[in-house]
Each structure stands twice: as structure tokens, then as C-alpha cells.
Amino acid sequence: LRESIAQDQEKAESLKIQMQELEGSIQIVDAKVHHTETTLKDLRKLQEQIANKTVERSTLFKEQQKQYAALAEENEDTDEELNEWKNKFEERIALLESKISKLEREMNDTETKSSFLKQTINEYIWEISKLQTEAEAHLSLKTERDTTIQKFFARHNLGSVLDIPFSNEVSLSLINRIKSRLMDLEKDMEDKKVNFLARCIFIHRNEHEKRYDYNIFTTNNRC
């Protein structure tokens, strides 16, 4: 009995191993079947693409044949028609060459005008720079003028003035005030000079009279 049980166990193990091997074989077969199905699908797609390309190629070939036929019909012109077409073509070429020549002349004129405009612009830039320099110099002179006026008013107590820079009207008014003040000073100096000369003459005359009286007095005493 034990031997029978052992034999049954061995058979069961053997069957188990065989089943595992069969399962592995089945999986391999399934994989091959799946691969085959995928390959068949790809083949069908390729066949469809080949069929489409064949139809497209046939259509293009037919269209090409039609174009060749139409071209052959167009070329069935007489010599007179060909000469007429040639003359028209040459006239067209001559017209195009004339237009090209005209465009070249216009381009040359444009380049000449552009060069002249560049030169004019450079001259304007130089003139603007010159004017800016002159304006800066003029502004510097105005600042110097205003500062001088301000200092003169402060030095001679001529009154308060506005803050610089002065407008032309304000500076002209202040300059006129300075001129008026200078005229007053000159007049005052002239008056002082006249008074000084008058005093000098008066003193000189008095001294002369005193000397004259002294001489008379001395002469009388001698007598």
C-alpha cells in the first residue's frame, strides 16, 4: 500500500510538472499567436497603402498622359503662328528690359538724392551744433550779465533784485537804473568838483588880497 501511495505521489508530481510545462508552452503559443495577429494587421495596412499608392500612381500617370497630349496639341502650330508668338515674346522681353532700365535709372536717381540728402542732413547737424554752441555762449553771457547786475546792486545799495536769471525786460530795466545812478554820481562828482574849484579860487583870492593888504601896510609903515 505504501508503495502504491508513493507511486501515486510520483505520478502526481510528474503530472504537475507536465501541466506546468504545458502552461508554459501555451503562453509561448499565445505570444506567437498575438505576434502573428499583429503582423497580419501590419501586412493588411501595408497592402492598403500599396493599393492606395497604386491608385494614386495610376491617376498621376493618366494626368501626365493628358498633359502630354494637351502639350502636343498646343505645339501643333504653324510656322506663322510660331513666328507671331516669337515676335510677341521678343516684344515682351524688350518691354521688360525697358522697364528694368527705367528702374535702374530711378534707382540711380534715388541713390543720388539719398547722397544729397545725407550731405544736407550732415550740414544741418553741423549748423544745429553751431547754434547750440552759440546759444550756450549767449546763455553764459546772460548769466554773467545778471550776476554782475546783482553784485552791483548789492555793492551800491540800489535795492533788492529778483533771483537770476533775469528776463531781457527785467535786465534792461535794471541796467537803466544803474545808468541813472551813474549819471547821478557823475553829476554829484561834477558838483563837488565845481564846489572844490570855487573854494580853491576863493582861498587863493583871499590869500592874494591878504598879501596885497600886507604890502600896503608895510609900505605905509616905512614911510
TrEMBL record:
Residue ranges of coiled coil: 5-120
Record keywords, A-Z: Coiled coil
Source species, domain of life: Eukaryota
Any one GO molecular function term: double-stranded telomeric DNA binding
Protein's GO biological process: chromosome organization involved in meiotic cell cycle; double-strand break repair; telomere maintenance via recombination; telomere maintenance via telomerase
Annotated Gene Ontology cellular component terms: condensed nuclear chromosome; Mre11 complex
Protein name: Dna repair protein rad50
Organism listed in the record: Quercus suber (Cork oak)
